[in-house]
What does this fold into?
Amino acid sequence: MSKSIQLSERAGTSKSIRNQGRKMGRIPAVLYGIGKTTVSVEVNEKEMLEVLRKNPRAILQASTPAAGILPVVIQNVQRATLSGKLIHIDFHHVNMSKIMDSKVTIHFFGESIGVKEGGILQVEMYEVEVRCMPDHLPPSMEVNISGLAIGDQILVSDLVFQDGIEVLTDPAAVMIQIKNVHEEEVLEAATPA
It folds into this structure.
């Protein structure tokens, strides 16, 4: 079930109006898409933080004042450098009848055998790029790492997606690996400060 969000028309585009809106918990945003006019909108900060925490790649049902309800994805999120507070969000209108490129977040779970034996868990990437129909886009993928021993790794090619999803990320890319402690110490000693 897609999450619904409310997009409101923005009163103005000046910096003071945007800052005033942020103080009141409204984040400035834009909504755009192929064949659509770019519209300046704003969204409730708490609502967006919940969406970003639960599933930042989800297809959302955005209720807009001018166009009604539209399927959208979060294309870009800008945050303040020091505070991490939301500054601006780009929403992209999704055509549900056309293939789209997106990213899928990978969640690793379990405690690996290698870590229990003293190895170091090193995560190289937390998401992969995929191409599929919008209604086939998985919210995320769970990967069990319990069976990984020291020296083991999981490659992008090891991920198993449902039919209709093409993985665009390099299949030989390492997602996660369990390194030997001594191997990590040698790498740190070889790296100049």
